[in-house]
Amino acid sequence: MFYNEWKFFYEKIAQDLNLQIEHEKKAANVLNNLLKQKKMNLLSEKKLDQLISNKEVVVFGAGPSLEKTILKYKKMIENKVKITADGTTTALLQKNILPDVIVTDLDGEITDQLKASSLGCKTIIHAHGDNIHKINKHVPEFKGEISGTTQINPQPYSHLYNYGGFTDGDRAIFLSDHFHAEKIYLAGFDFDERIGKYSFATNKDKKLKLKKLKWCKYLVETLEKGNNNIHYLQL
Predict the structure, then answer these.
(1) Most buried residue among 74, 94, 97, 220 by CB atoms closer than 10 A?
(2) From start to end of the chain, where are the E strands?
(3) pTM score, two decimals?
C-alpha cells in the first residue's frame, strides 16, 4: 500500500484517537535526521524486496496465543521469513528463534531488539507523535540495518517510508503485502480484547490499547478482502 491509499484510513484513525499532525511531523523529522546520520547501516527497499517478495512470511502479533502458537508451529516457522511486531521479538528469542525483520515503535523490550539487530536481524523503526524520546534514545543503539516509517505522508522525508498500517502488528502485515509475499501467516493475532504479555502494556492505558487493537483488526480484515494469501495459524 502507498500513502495515497493509506491516507483515507489514517485520517479516520487520527480523528478517532485525536492524533496531532504536528506531533507526527516532529517525530518523523527526528527519525529522518537520525537515519541520515547512519548511512552505513540503512536498510534499502531493494533488500526488503529480496527478503520478502514471493516468500512465505510469518508475522508475529502479541496476542495471548503467541507462545503456544510458536511452540506448535516451530518447525514450520523456522523455514519462513519471520517478521516480529515489536515486543514479540522477545518471545521468539526466548524460543531460540531469530527474526528476520522487526517492525517496532520501540515499546517492547529494547534490549532484545538490540540483541536481534546485532545478530543480523533487520529493523524497521516507526515514528509517531508519542515516541520521540524513544527514537532519540534508542535509534543510535541499533547495530544492524535499519529503516524508518511514518504514518503520515512520507514524501517530505528522504529516509522514511509508509507501507500502510497503524499498530506494529498490522504494519508488519501491510509491509509483507507491499513487498508481495507469496503467503502471509499470522501468529498471535487473537482480536478477542485480551492483551498479551508481549505487548508490554502493564503501565499503559488499557482502554486506549484496546481501541488500537480494534483498529488493527479492522485494518487486517480490510487487507484480507483483497488478499487471499493471508492465513491464521490456529491452535
Answers:
(1) 220
(2) 56-60, 81-85, 101-104, 122-127, 146-150, 160-161, 183-187, 230-232
(3) 0.96
